[in-house]
Amino acid sequence: MPSRRRTRFAPPLAAATALLLPLVACGSSKDPSDKRPGPTKKPTATVTPRPGDQKVTLVWKGEKRVYRVHTPPGYTRAGRLPLVIAMHPYPADGEAMAEISGLNAKADKENFLVAYPDGLNRGFNALICCGTEDDVGFIRAITETLTGSWKADPARVYATGISNGGDMAYKLAVELPGTFAAISPVSGGYLGTGAEKKSYVPRTPVSVLTFIGGLDEHYAGMDAGINAWQNRLSCEPDDRQLLKKNRIRKTAATCRDGSEVVVYRLPKMGHSWPNGAGGDMSDPTAGVNATDVMWRFFEKHTLDSSESPS
């Protein structure tokens, strides 16, 4: 193992972020929003928790909102199962996210719940796109419902997403302290006006696993973003590996707050989900299966009972 030292990161986040602003395919916009969530308003839709797939439609702050829940075979409310919030790219919806990620099959095998929120107008109000909706509050309400009446384990709640949904995972980690034990943004970034502030970091430990493609036109911004995240949280490198297949670079670091950051840089991948299950954003030749690696990472991380909002 290499000697431990303070990590140095480059290029500057603000400069790299500027490269992404015109690129709407990544969920980009010139309309950044730093809006914080207001008081939680729980969904009022009546749905009976049961195994399988359910679509939940509700009115949230005057807007019709939708999310889908997948529960594994044999699910009952008697057990506390982990929960993964999985967020789609822009423009898409939760059904597309399920297809890209293959998380339903993984949930059936590993026994966890998956929730797929639909962004309003097919996108989330993440760090640099899209819209002005209180999606942080909406997703907070979903997690409260699923850890409440659905009895998911509040100590094992995780978030993932691709592109705009990956950006949203970073936003949730910062703006919902004490909610997520770990996140896994795929082809997404810690970017935008809000993320340029050094104070814009999680108040409770949130571990991060991320995948970024060397052929992604947004690579520079995403790379700068995860470097800034580590710098601000005083993360020190633990391990660096060069994987033989596709010369993938894997780095791991431990941060001052006890969280972990693992980054897969895939030189031959574009704006995609590594070895996804289907859809245009799945790259079957990426050399690593993001869904499998992600779940192993999530299993390692549990929210401590003391990690709650102050």
Automatic annotation (TrEMBL):
It is found in: Secreted. Residues 1-27 form the signal peptide. GO terms for cellular component: extracellular region. One of its GO terms (biological process) is xylan catabolic process. Residues 27-53 are annotated as: Disordered. One of its GO terms (molecular function) is feruloyl esterase activity. Keywords: Carbohydrate metabolism, Hydrolase, Polysaccharide degradation, Secreted, Signal, Xylan degradation. This is Polyhydroxybutyrate depolymerase. It comes from Streptomyces alfalfae.
